[in-house]
Amino acid sequence: MLKLYIGNKNYSSWSMRPWLVLKKAQLSFEETLIQLYVPGVKSRLNQLSPAGTVPVLQVGEQMIPDSLAIADWAANCVPNLWPKNEEDKQLAQNFCRQMQEDFGEFRKHAPMNLRRRTTTKMPKLALEATDKMQALWLEYLARHDGPFLFGQWSIADAFATPYATRFISYNIERNARADTYMSELMADDDFLEWEFEALKETWTIEPVDKVGL
Ligand SMILES: N[C@@H](CCC(=O)N[C@@H](CS)C(=O)NCC(=O)O)C(=O)O
After folding, report:
1. What's the number of CA atoms in the CB half-sphere (13 Å) around residue 133?
2. Mind spelling out the 3-state secondary structure of 115-152?
């Protein structure tokens, strides 16, 4: 039995990624949502794993923290979650690592907030990061004819999805090819299921809702 611990669906971009991967892998799992930024949450998170963060995947007695480690675990169980071609696979894995380690300015000034729609201006550094993100997407999209970064859907697309939602929430300018790619991500059935649940949530995290105001 698999159990995925996640944060608020409206806000937790890291939780969304492995949730999408497990759905695409068609691995059945139970999910437990831990409401973030409420008193006592840190000790609850620390009980799950030393990282003290969500997502965490429980596989029997084993606890796997970190979105990319969970995605990789799924890819070891189910074929084709990473691109088949070895060069594409390397690029996709590097891309996911970059999504975790880079783009801090983008994340800080446009935190995932699925219900939000704003035209607030973002600082120059953050806008430069949004250009850099689009350039990466275009580079990968140009390698194949398919709708997704590496042709067929892969873990890289799960890692790009929360960034696509930010382009929409914060009304960030994008070129036509990037926009078409984002439309594919936003029309994905699993994403729509996550978003549907997110939009029903009534919890708010004020500092996140006020970014840019
Ligand atoms: N690198 C981690 C980041 C996880 C992360 O920062 N999760 C946030 C929620 S989106 C969290 O648990 N924050 C609560 C805290 O740090 O107290 C991953 O990819 O899973």
Report:
1. 33
2. CCCCCCCCCHHHHHHHHHHHHHHHHHHCCCCCCECEEE
Query: Which CATH number characterizes residue 64's domain?
Result: 3.40.30.10
Tell me the per-residue pLDDT of 186-207, one tens digit each, with 9 for 90 and over.
Answer: 999 999 999 999 999 999 999 9
For β-strands 2-6 and 29-33, DSSP reports them as parallel
Same domain, 158 and 179: yes
* CA 153/CA 21 separation, integer angstroms: 10
Nearest CA to ligand 1 atom 15: 53
Residues 56 and 150 in one domain: no
pLDDT confidence of residue 192:
98
Tens-digit pLDDT profile for residues 43-75: 999 999 999 999 999 999 999 999 999 999 999
Residue nearest to atom 14 of ligand 1 (CA): 53
Give the count of domains, the chain: 2
Phi/psi of residue 2, nearest 5 degrees:
-100, 140
Q: Which residues pair with 5 in a beta bridge?
A: 32, 56
> The whole model's pTM is what?
0.97
- The residues that bridge with 163 in the sheet, in sequence order, are none
The domain of 13 spans 2-79
Residue 182 lies in a domain: yes
What is the pLDDT at residue 167? Answer: 98
- Ligand 1 binding pocket (C-beta < 6 A) is 7, 12-15, 36, 42, 45, 52-55, 66-68, 100
Q: Give bridge partners of residue 148 from the DSSP assignment.
A: 151
Reported as a single tens digit per residue, the pLDDT across 120-129 is 999 999 999 9
